[in-house]
Amino acid sequence: MKKLAIVLTLVAILPACERSEAMPPVGTEVKVEKKDGINVAGKLVEVKPEQVVVEAPDGKKTEVPKSQIASMTSASGEVVSGSPKSDPAADARRDAESKAAAGAEGKAPTAPVAPGAPPAPTPKEDAVAAPAKVPEFRELTIPAGTMLPATLATAVASDTSHVEDPVRATLRSSVMAEGHQALPAGTTIIGHVTGAERSAKVKGRASIAFRFNTIDLPGDGGRQSISTETISHLAPTTKKKDATKVGVGAGAGAVIGGIVGGGSGAAKGAVIGGGAGTAAVLATRGEEVRLPSGTPVSVKLTAPLTVRVPLK
User: Fold this and answer.
1) What is the pTM (predicted TM-score) of this model?
2) What's the distance, Cα to Cα, between the start and end of the chain in Å?
3) What is the DSSP secondary structure assignment for residue 301, as one 8-state letter?
């Protein structure tokens, strides 16, 4: 509404401006009143962009700059340039038009207000990243002395393994702590061979020993150090088998000696047979200790183990 009032006001003012700036035709008798109060009367003989030329009755021409013209009237008294005479009817008509344009409230037109800066765009809801959910964990402590039931995934043997060889196993069943599952079945434990002795001849039984020092937790749990007892296995003794070998050798020798030389031959044969059995025992190694992959073992924790498990 304010813009409409301004437009109507300009429409009413422009014709007056155009009338004030218009010049009469050349040859018109005019009276020019200058802003310094001096009047120049005569015939308008020339209109230039910046000035007009008025010729007096005696033939004298006067150049009057347009910027110095206060008013210019024709011989009939009509104002043809400068400020027009007051026209009460026209003034009243323009006032009425201005008030009508201003609206029923009768407010005077005001200068247009420059539009303010547009509000900053707000980010779209889907563009705002939702905060990442932080997983919550619970710490569970498995006390020392807890047995870890496991199954060997690496074969070990007294005659093929060496100290520091790696040993791996997996838990056969889950381990509970504080009423919750601390280690699920299938969790991997890792260790190494601590001792391997091959069976000797006559004396020296075979043995194998290993322990675990690392647990590979499932998911993103990573690896943790653990402390366990050493698992040792010793080969069984072969004394009965050795005695049997020696006895069989002596008995066979006595039989052969009796056939060949009678009573004295039997005695000699027994001695010879016994010697042969002893030689067989001395030449034979004892049994080895071999634990293939898949062998069940149980290992005891010697220090508490604290693990983090996600809350469910």
Assistant:
1) 0.46
2) 66
3) B
